[in-house]
Specification:
Elements lengths: L1 H12 L2 H8 L3 E6 L2 E6 L2 H10 L1 H10 L6 E6 L52 H12 L8 E5 L5 H15 L5 E5 H13 L3 H9 L4 E5 L8 H16 L3 E6 L11 H7 L4 E4 L4 H14 L6 H10 L4 H17 L6 H11 L8 H12 L3 H4 L6 H17 L4 H7 L4 H17 L1 H15 L2
Parallel strand pairs: 2-3, 4-7, 4-8, 5-6, 6-7
Antiparallel strand pairs: 1-2
Amino acid sequence: MVWDKIKENLKTTMADNIFHLWIEPLQFQQLKGEKFVLQSPDRYFSAYVKQNFSVTIEKQLVASGLEQTQLVICEKRVSKPVPPVVKKKKAPVSRQMRLPNVPLNTSKTRNLHPRYTFDQFMVGDSNILAESACRSVVAADGLVGPCLYINGGTGLGKSHLTHAVAHRVLSESPMTRLHYLTAKQFAAEMVRGIQTNTMDDFKRKYQENCDILLVEDIHSLTGKKKTQEELNDVLDMLIKSGKRVILTSNSSPRDLVGIDNEFRSRMSSGLVTSIKAPDVKTRCRIIEQKAMQKQLGLNDELVDFLANHIKGDVRKIESALITLRARAQLTGGHIDMDLVREVVSNVVGISQALTPSMIRDLVSAQFNVSVKDLQSKSRKKIVTVPRQIAMYLSRKFTENSLADIGRTFNRDHSTVLHSIKVVSNKLVRDTSVNAQLEILSDKVSQL
């Protein structure tokens, strides 16, 4: 069987623990048409395998003679048995019981945002692994390891996910001793403990009376050696006790400056994942959801405009929609493109959206080749090289599809894909091409 042979090959190239944890549980389901379907235990498992091992598995499929086969990883569907209907008296709402000798719940949640829940979190390619990992922490299934570390830029959803974890845990298990705070708050609390000679209580709170610890903005501990040591001791104790830990930061552990190596190692002991800026499709869904919450009627054209001009920080989307609602109330509730343009300009500034045609025109001028030649069927090197570079840059700097880019050059999507591969290979082999692309990239960024 093909999958058995692939697993044997993977076993020889991977560390035993990695193979047994992530490859062994995958089960072959079917080879249907051009789809090679593997089944994984759950959604989080699928997301992690797709991100980290799909390329490796696809190479093995090619080596096995399945060049045109697409790898598909799906989750097991567990069918729950339907219990017989039994009429009984209405039972009182159950409460999680506290075991003997367990201290009362002393959870500290520091004003959780009521809307920061899993249901309100928009999942896309940029954040699916982080979201799935947080659900795994709630389920306490151990898949993410002893400590989950999430990094990403401002306003991309790190706080939303940590709040969502706190909401879900406290909802399902009210007696869980959960502590949510920022690294600065942890440091301030430690200082107070030192000043008031109550460090024993401080240590007991986090090392002994804590089932799940959520600490945000770890990067703010840069250079604070004493606080790092204290938090490291807390992490050590919690991890050894099998407790759950989530840390967030604006950088990955290896990129943090002024952090003790032992502390860095402890933070990296489990899954380290990142949240990227949402793509256009995800931004559209975010805008539609938030607009509905604010009772704003936005048509598809207005949603697309907002999604294409407000990038990165999701909080800017929130700001724009709040402003739109306020302005709409003053103008009788009517929202048109002129109003949206004005609001977006005030929030982020209007910049001309970068398009493949703009990049095509730039490359045309730089290589002294006419746009007509770039769109022609000419295969002369003097034309094909700039054409391929223009297609590569269009893919890199715009969110247009391969088909859209192809239409700019009178080509189909397969030609664009071939051009991207050609330029990518040249970048690896030829330093002069690399330097040339850097110069062109800088010029494209200034458009």
